[in-house]
Design a protein that fits this description.
single chain, 166 residues, elongated, 4 helices, mainly alpha
Length: 166
């Protein structure tokens, strides 16, 4: 199961990397087209879709690498059972919030599909297409929080080392 979960997180990170390359390509295309006096419609919108998708798809991988910003003012002073209980509480809240985010992201994509919502830009992209990345990324994030919760519950979770800059 661990290998499967890690593969899911890595796949989401790979999608995020490809989307970041997409942002680069859209920006470069926009610059080159301006320099050569022609216009490619929608490059700014597609760059925005790719940027948003990359952000959401990278969330779980970032969490699993302990690279999310955490405020450890209280947590850093606790040890043993008190720290364990606070970690579980925080992970429970995070899992519930990410579950809600995932639910509403998928609902938004579904409603955009049902109502035929289109981009107001000249690209006229059906909005449910880029919104799928938001739903997928938030679902993988929820899975990662549940994974972290389970590891914390069993006492197997690796805690980030405090550097004083967290």
């Amino acid at each position: 199961m661990r290998k499967t979960l890690d593969a899911v997180y890595s796949a989401a990170a790979a999608v995020a990397a490809v989307l970041m390359i997409g942002v680069l390509l859209m920006v470069l295309l926009s610059i080159v087209s301006r320099l050569l006096h022609f216009h490619v419609p929608g490059t700014d919108a597609y760059a925005g879709y790719a940027m948003a998708g990359a952000g959401f798809m990278a969330l779980a991988h970032t969490l699993k690498r302990n690279e999310h910003i955490r405020v450890t003012l209280i947590l850093g002073r606790l040890t043993g059972d008190a720290r364990h209980r606070l970690e579980l509480w925080a992970l429970t809240v995070a899992a519930v919030m990410s579950l809600l985010l995932s639910f509403f992201a998928w609902r938004l994509a579904w409603q955009s599909h049902v109502f035929h919502d289109m981009s107001t830009g000249n690209d006229a992209t059906p909005l449910w297409i880029p919104q799928i990345l938001m739903g997928l990324g938030s679902t993988v994030l929820c899975l990662a929080f549940l994974d972290e919760w389970w590891l914390e519950w069993r006492g197997l979770r690796e805690h980030a080392q405090g550097t004083g800059h967290e």
